[in-house]
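Recall that a protein's primary structure is simply its ordered list of amino acids. Everything else, from secondary elements to tertiary packing, is in principle encoded there. The following example makes that idea concrete.
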Amino acid sequence: MRFSRPRRPFLVPMNAMSDVAFLLLIFIMLVSLINYRKEVKIDYPEADEAATKVNDKKNLELWIDESGTVYINGAPSTLAEVEIAVDDLYRSAPDTRIHIIADRDVPFAKVNNVLEILQLLEYRVVSFVVRDNA
């Protein structure tokens, strides 16, 4: 004679699920707060009265430190890489503004190298970033 045991339904323990959901929520909130903008330490030149303020989130930042190294959005790069990045930017979004952020002690020849690339590519939406005197 065969005895059958009564079948009990399989239960998933739900008391740990709320802990997992809470930890996942904290992780997502912390990752979303990370600022991915890389900045180069420079000493800004000062603005005069004729300077205008531009507030545009969609831009490409070209940093030039006092040694003359050019950075694209915080990553060191060569002038050839600057030319490729600006050309790609112009093809994908021609209204994007380029911000040139140069140290006040950088020789103008280093800034002029970047300007010559922009002139060669006929890029016209360019801003120089300076420190506000006010």
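Helices lie at 17-32, 79-92, 108-120. Residues 59-128 form a domain with the Nucleotidyltransferase; domain 5 fold (CATH 3.30.420.270).
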